[in-house]
Amino acid sequence: MGQTLYFILLLIALCSVSECVQRQYHFINEKKTWTEAQRYCRENYTDLATAENMNDTNELKKSVNDSSVQKIWIGLQKTGRDEWHWSSDPELIVIRENVTWSEALRYCRQNHVDLVSVHSEEMQRRVMNVVKRASTAEVWLGLRHSCTVGIWFWVSEDTVCYQNWAPGNGTSEEDCEHTVRSGAVQSGGDQRWISLPETHKLNFICTTYEE
Ligand SMILES: *[C@@H]1O[C@H](CO)[C@@H](O)[C@H](O)[C@H]1NC(C)=O
Ligand SMILES: *[C@@H]1O[C@H](CO)[C@@H](O)[C@H](O)[C@H]1NC(C)=O
Ligand SMILES: *[C@@H]1O[C@H](CO)[C@@H](O)[C@H](O)[C@H]1NC(C)=O
Ligand SMILES: *[C@@H]1O[C@H](CO)[C@@H](O)[C@H](O)[C@H]1NC(C)=O
Ligand SMILES: *[C@@H]1O[C@H](CO)[C@@H](O)[C@H](O)[C@H]1NC(C)=O
User: Fold this and answer.
1) Separation of 24 CA from ligand 2 center, angstroms?
2) Which ligand 2 atom minimizes the distance to the CA of 55?
3) Nearest to 89 by CA among 55, 134, 122
4) Between vectors from CA 164 to CA 158 and to CA 170, what angle results, nearest 5°?
5) Which ligand is nearest to the CA of 139?
6) Which residue's CA is minimally distant from atom 13 of ligand 4?
7) Residue 78: enclosing H or E segment and its boundaries?
8) Ligand 4: does its nearest atom lie under 6 Å from the Cβ of 97?
9) Contacts of 145 (CB under 8 A, 6+ apart)
10) Closest Cα to atom 3, ligand 2: which residue?
11) What would the pLDDT profile of 145-198 be if each residue is shown by its tens digit?
12) What is the pLDDT of residue 21?
């Protein structure tokens, strides 16, 4: 990232309730280094722009409304010889302690970023990869059931669009008489999501950002 100043672009991933994966981009017409731009976006929005398909790319282009700007930063970062990754993709870490869902949430928010949200197939693949290291048969995700409205939601505030529930799990009608239900992923087998009372004690996955 040792380049001179360029115009940057920005981003971000607001998932509105109606449209599941539509990203929203904000063009920031200021000169910054990539690292400064990333800091700006993380503080004021979500992160530097991620564009995963043609639709995203078109939206991103549309957001740049100043025709004199020739180059803009996006959230791609080279992390290895031939490896690139998006700034908005967190690293995932499995915490091998057996705790309730609420304790897991508090731990992740205090020590890292949040309990993991699995909002795409790509993220599910990454989760499947890391949960192999867990010591419990299920591992907490940032997935919670609301009895008031009868829906499942991610604590990161993303709507649940992508789903990978085990058969019979994840329905809107959960048992609301006892404890609140939360979502966990199986660490073996099909590695699907299941609904459990939040008082079960399991390992969990936090998202964390590379500095
Ligand atoms: C966030 O935006 C404000 C207002 O534009 C700006 O002053 C501030 O420096 C930004 N944060 C970062 C980390 O750049
Ligand atoms: C791209 O946008 C079109 C029209 O808005 C939509 O029909 C299509 O499903 C979108 N594709 C993706 C991959 O989001
Ligand atoms: C681009 O859009 C922003 C936000 O809508 C606006 O403030 C700015 O004046 C626009 N710039 C140009 C060159 O149209
Ligand atoms: C957590 O629970 C698993 C399964 O019951 C057990 O094998 C493991 O030793 C426990 N880990 C800790 C740190 O207590
Ligand atoms: C949820 O999935 C698990 C694992 O497949 C299964 O044992 C359980 O019966 C399912 N729950 C319901 C309510 O069907």
Assistant:
1) 15
2) 1
3) 122
4) 75
5) 4
6) 97
7) strand 76-78
8) yes
9) 151, 152, 174, 180, 181, 182, 183, 195
10) 55
11) 988 888 899 998 767 788 999 999 998 777 777 889 999 999 999 999 999 999
12) 53
CA gap 189, 119 in Å, rounded:
21
Q: How is residue 163 annotated by DSSP?
A: -
CB-based contacts of 80: which residues, under 8 Å, 6+ apart? none
**Atom 9 (ligand 5): residue with closest C-alpha?**
168
Instruction: Summarize pLDDT for 17-38 with one digit per residue, the tens.
Output: 334 556 789 999 999 999 999 9
What pLDDT digit, counting tens, does each position of 121-151 carry? Answer: 888 998 999 999 999 999 999 999 988 888 8
* Domain residue ranges of the chain, discontinuous segments joined by +: 13-86, 91-208
Hey, what are 36's tokens?
Answer: 């400064």
User: In sequence order, what are the residues at sequence separation of 6 or more whose Cβ sits closer than 8 angstroms to the Cβ of residue 112?
Assistant: 93, 206, 207, 208
Whether 22 lines ligand 2, by a CB cut-off of 6 Å, is no
Residue with the nearest Cα to atom 9 of ligand 2? 55
Please state which of the four CATH numbers 3.40.50.720, 3.10.100.10, 3.40.50.150, 3.40.50.970 is assigned to the domain occupying 91-208.
3.10.100.10
